[in-house]
Amino acid sequence: MPLKPPRLSVIIPCHNGAATLAQQLEALARQQFDKASEGAWQGEWEVIVVNNGSTDRSVEIAEGYRDRLPRLTIAEAHQPGTPLLGVTHSYNVGLQAAQGDAFAFCEADDEVCDHWVQAVGSALQQHELIAGSLCHDQLNEAWQIEAFGAGSQMEQLPRFYLIEKYVYASGCNLAFRRSVYDKLGPIDESIRYVWDMEFCWKAQDLGIAMVFVPEMAIQYRLPTKLPKIYNRVRLWCIETAELQRRYQGRNSAIALLKLNYWTLKYSALSAFCWLRYSMGGSKAKLAQSLHELGGCVGRFQGTFYLSRV
Fold it and tell me: How far apart are CA 224 and CA 141, in angstroms?
């Protein structure tokens, strides 16, 4: 018997994710649905793994889940002999391949909770654009949790410190109706590190409310390599300058004043963190120090960028 068309498309970008992809697909294969709760979502859903030039066993691992995830599709985001594009390109390829009336994003190195699909489907019956919490307690080591806490987006969605009228969410736990995609169009592939922030802001500018759904939880994997902790936040802070230019204007004096204030603040905080670590800190304190230093350097670079455009 042919399968019914899916109502929800779960999109997973993957580049060399063999070490963790099975854990995410396993979590999706064991999804639980509460059929007794009134109004609980019971729709059909599909999983789209977007392979972006993997050279490991990622595709083989995904193929092994076809029996347990009968609506599994493997989409190819990379053509041999062409430059390797980023995660935004993978998501756009997944959106083009998706058949559902709504889309949910998760990633190959995280793990969705047991009721995640139903939580997403139920919330999207009421809201157009939603996001859930990121838990740190199961996939990370003790020093990572000490450094960055037990989770983020746990009680509410964050606001950007320079433009506080918008909320935003991490793209690794984001979902929206097809109507939102029709209004916003594809994800902006020119933004590599804060594309999710830009997507959320653009939606809110069009009058689409963003709603926090705590039941829509994932286990989020923090970076383990200290240089990556530094560089990721540095690049994030540089790109926020471009968003600031887009949403506050090219020569916004207020924007520059705010960015300079936060740059000075984090410079002082970074210096304090390095001093604390040099006096006998733990690996967690070193991670915090590198995070603050990356933010400081990125803000300086972003300030320079914003002053020149």
Answer: 9
Same domain as 189, residue 242: no
The count of domains in the chain is 2
Q: Which of 219, 250, 270 is the last residue of a domain?
A: 219
Least confident of 117-121, 198-202, 273-277: 273-277
The reported pTM is 0.90
How far lies 192's CA from each of 58, 120, 171, 235, 265, in Å? 22, 25, 12, 9, 26
Task: Calculate the alpha carbon distances from 199 to 52, 56, 84 in Å.
Answer: 21, 31, 22
Q: Is residue 62 domain-shared with residue 186, that is, in the same domain?
A: yes
Q: Do 34 and 57 belong together in one domain?
A: yes
Winning range, highest mean pLDDT, from 21-25, 252-256, 265-269: 21-25
Radius of gyration of the chain (CA): 20
If asked whether residues 33 and 159 sit together in one domain, one would say yes
55 and 177 housed in the same domain: yes
- The per-residue pLDDT for range 79-135, each reduced to its tens digit, is 999 999 999 999 999 999 999 999 999 999 999 999 999 999 999 999 999 999 999
Largest CA distance in the chain: 68
Q: Residue 29 is which amino acid?
A: A
Parallel/antiparallel/unpaired status of strands 72-76 and 8-14: unpaired
Write the pLDDT tens digit of every residue in 230-249. Answer: 999 999 988 988 888 788 76
Mean pLDDT, the chain, rounded, equals: 88
For residue 90, tell me if it sits in a domain. Answer: yes
Opening angle at CA 264, ends 259 and 270, nearest 5:
120
Instruction: Find out whether 166 and 201 touch, Cβ atoms under 8 Å.
Output: yes
- Rounded Cα distance between 286 and 243, Å, is 29
Specify whether 123 is located in the same domain as 248: no
Assess whether 186 and 101 both reside in one domain: yes
